[in-house]
Amino acid sequence: MDRDDLRDIVKVVVKEVLDQWQTPIEMAGKWDGGTMIFKPGDSSLQSKEVDILSFFHKVVLLRDRLRVLEQKINSNAKLSDDDKVDMQQYITRCYGSLTSFNILFKNDGDKFKGSSS
User: Where are the domains of the chain?
Assistant: First the structure.
């Protein structure tokens, strides 16, 4: 691979990453101003109320970090193809475990997708 080929590949990857970050991820409107209430099974303990927008942003950050991890795995020259596939399968299962949070997202393209998608 020569320098120009590498430069072209880097440009494509950087553009994809920037496009993901520049597109705002929107929470479904029905949750605007909402809160999440964590109520313990033990009635002697206090409930905890969390702003749903803050929680949503943490879910989005987790998703973005999983995507970066995928990119780092796929571009790692020291990992074998089998190792990359194995790690990718774990990440896909993580996405699948997080599909319960898809109700928070406004746009279908922003939602988590597991291995059956």
Answer: 3-110
